[in-house]
Design brief:
Elements: H1 3-6, E1 20-24, H2 27-39, E2 44-47, H3 53-58, E3 64-68, H4 76-91, E4 97-101, H5 115-123, E5 131-133, E6 142-145, E7 148-153, E8 156-159, H6 179-184, E9 191-194, H7 196-200, H8 204-211, E10 218-221, H9 226-238, E11 244-248, H10 251-262, E12 282-285, H11 290-301, E13 305-308, H12 311-314, H13 320-336, E14 341-344, H14 352-355, H15 357-363, H16 368-388, E15 394-398, H17 400-409, E16 414-422, E17 425-431, E18 441-445, H18 454-460
Parallel strand pairs: 1-3, 1-4, 2-3, 4-11, 5-10, 9-10, 12-14, 12-15, 13-14, 15-18
Antiparallel strand pairs: 2-16, 6-7, 7-8, 16-17, 17-18
């Protein structure tokens, strides 16, 4: 760690007002940012829809403001149409850092979820001479070393292009671990790196000075441990200038917190409250990940009620309503008998609903994105009816696209963190003008997050080792 980062001082404390404003490329990752900052004592709110002035006034004490989006599943044309307005509205909050929040597995592609396209759009609104990218987050078992991304899974750490789940992602498989090369497929912008040795040996400052330029390069910051994490936070914060744009995972939040703590601007230790147990929960899962599949399997073997949503039936107008009613009725019956329902469209990447999805969609002349959206909407309708027809007050949504559909469908306006569970998947409180939804407890879980017993942890509030 550099001498500067070691120094503890109350000089030049954190400015008033928002410190970071961010757009989340999906809903699950958006709550990850909230958890990282809230646990460190940085109040954060996530808006599910563009906030009104009245809504902003309601959360005027927040130091970080987010807007949950769906760009991770969108093409570059959609991004060019929608992201500039979103970025401009967030800039108006006056935060010195504007973040495009990406998944810590960095999965993306030139044709869908292009991080490069988002950077080009975001950087154009600043005069900054660089755009930092922080992806590594050791707390989430994400490590970037010499530009290569590694991610943990079931107690092992894999290079991202050999990760059991992310290398097989059905839409954006990670086939390149060097994030400079991966991002280089998505933008023509210059891409540079401050590596782990430079970060930990006091060379980060000098290296950054050689990289800054009017072409506004992307500068990736290796994060593999506490020292490199703090240095990444220092470089970003001290070189934020009049305004900085950063496409980063919640690794940015963890890095900023580490640096702010090193300066004495945040308490050394803080944590989130422990979740209280719930009488029952309901889960809807549109995730195709390996971990999501293991979580469903574990739940069904330990007293949860499983209900598979027939994907084909939900894509046919003639059978959609009947299939949703069947699933809802079975789930309500499970709740009445004391069992928490888990409604899922697939059980892992090898499920026939995943492996045969593309062919099935093409045979009916549908666009893949349109079909995927229809499944998300069906799961959202299932959740809405379960809430309307029962006393449920705690729910889980697994999968980024599903989370977006459900949150939007329920009329939720904003989320704040209520309690901690597993890293990256906190228990949130919903804010809504609808009394039936206000105060609802929600977990938006990314496919890779949690352990096999995660749904039991959400139910009981007891997190295992």
């Amino acid at each position: 760690m550099t001498q500067h980062a070691d120094a503890r001082s109350d000089a030049l404390p954190l400015p008033d007002g928002p410190l970071v404003a961010y757009y989340g490329d999906d809903f699950t990752g958006s709550t990850d940012v909230m958890e990282a900052f809230t646990a460190a004592g940085v109040p954060t709110v996530l808006f599910v829809q563009a906030p009104s002035q009245q809504s902003l006034a309601r959360f005027a004490d927040m130091r970080c403001v987010g807007l949950a989006g769906t760009s991770r599943g969108r093409d570059p044309a959609w991004m060019r149409e929608h992201l500039p307005a979103a970025f401009d509205s967030l800039r108006q909050l006056g935060a010195p850092i504007l973040q495009y929040k990406v998944c810590s597995t960095f999965d993306s592609a030139p044709h869908v979820g292009s991080i490069g396209q988002a950077i080009d759009l975001g950087v154009s609104g600043t005069a900054a001479r660089w755009s930092p990218t922080v992806v590594g987050a050791p707390r989430l078992q994400r490590f970037q070393v010499f530009g290569q991304l590694f991610a943990g899974f079931m107690g092992e750490v894999y290079r991202i292009d050999r990760h059991p789940s992310m290398s097989r992602h059905p839409v954006t498989p990670m086939d390149e671990a060097d994030l400079r090369l991966h991002l280089g497929r998505q933008t023509e912008r210059r891409i540079e790196l401050i590596d782990a040795v430079q970060a930990t040996q006091g060379q980060g400052e000098a290296r950054l000075q050689t990289l800054l330029g009017d072409d506004q390069p992307v500068v990736m910051l290796d994060v593999m441990d506490a020292v490199s994490q703090c240095e990444a936070g220092r470089l970003v914060w001290e070189h934020r200038g009049a305004g900085l744009f950063s496409a980063s995972s919640s690794g940015l939040q963890y890095a900023l917190v580490a640096y702010w703590r090193s300066r004495g601007w945040l308490p050394e230790q803080s944590s989130l409250p422990v979740a209280a147990p719930a009488p029952a929960i309901a889960v809807v899962s549109g995730s195709c990940s390996v971990m999501s599949g293991k979580q469903i399997e574990w739940a069904l073997a330990h007293g949860f009620h499983g209900e598979r949503l027939d994907v084909a039936a939900c894509l046919e107008a003639s059978s959609r309503a009947a299939e949703i009613e069947r699933v809802v009725a079975a789930s309500l019956q499970a709740l009445a008998s004391g069992h928490s329902p888990v409604v899922y469209s697939a059980m892992g990447p090898d499920d026939a609903a995943v492996t045969g999805f593309e062919a099935w969609v093409q045979s009916r002349g549908l666009a893949r994105a349109q079909a995927a959206e229809a499944i998300g909407d069906a799961l959202a309708e299932v959740m809405k009816q379960l809430l309307d027809r029962s006393d449920l007050r705690r729910v889980v949504v697994a999968g980024g696209d599903s989370s977006g559909a459900v949150a939007s469908h329920l009329g939720v306006q904003a989320l704040t963190v209520l309690a901690g569970l597993r890293p990256g998947a906190p228990l949130c409180r919903a804010w809504s003008d609808d009394a039936r939804r206000d105060g609802l407890e929600v977990v938006l879980k990314g496919g890779q997050m949690g352990t096999p017993s995660f749904y039991s942890e959400v139910l009981t509030g007891v997190v295992g080792d």
